[in-house]
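At this stage, I wrote out one protein's amino acid sequence and its backbone structure tokens, and that material follows here:
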Amino acid sequence: MLYTLNSKTAILDKTLGKAGLEVVGWILKPVDYLKEKGEYFWNSYIYLVNLKQENDLLKEQIDKLLLEKHNLEFKLNTLERFASIFHLNPFPEYKYIGSRILAKRLGPGGLLETIVLDKGEVQGLKPDDVVLSPYGVIGRLQKVSLTSSLVLLACDPNSKIAVVSAKHRVPGVLKGEGPGSLLNLLYVPKNVSLDKGEILLTSGTDELFPPGLPIAKIDSFKSQDISLFLEVKASLLVDPYLLEEVLILRP
């Protein structure tokens, strides 16, 4: 009877199919739940393992930085003792003021290699304040109004900055040569040592820029037959065309 009924109506096949599907669902749902929880636990575990490794690495870096800090503090204390012994004046302290670039006048169409900033006398800025980025010196303030400032860039032909090479401590004057041109390092004697790629730092002897700020790197140098000085070419560490914000150094 069941066979005949099923052959005509397929009711048993439908009933068993539904029952089997339900049973399969009952089986798969817990398995899927366990699988999901297992994957979540495993991923969380792996994440925690990676996080622990990252934390261990950061702790190691912090320990190294702390050691370097203690070492630098020891050197600073030593320098301060030497300065007091030889009656040397300490370097003045400075603060940084952030400023956004409002406009640029760069290239052959500009009378000067300048940029305009959105800070001025209201923020305490004055002419000759140093302008820089985290990577190097850009120039100095040329004119200051109430709420804006004009920056004379180091690549301008009117810019001359006293510098010293970082490795060999060779002094010179870094002169701008206009847009798209390398800067000239003037008054470098022929008998000194220089390296290609050597960083140039502000020397502070011009009493405009504090000493020790990176500004350029040496691209090439060669001897000249009719001159007592080397012909040294350098490039700025910062491209003014790519800047959007700058820092202003105030005593």
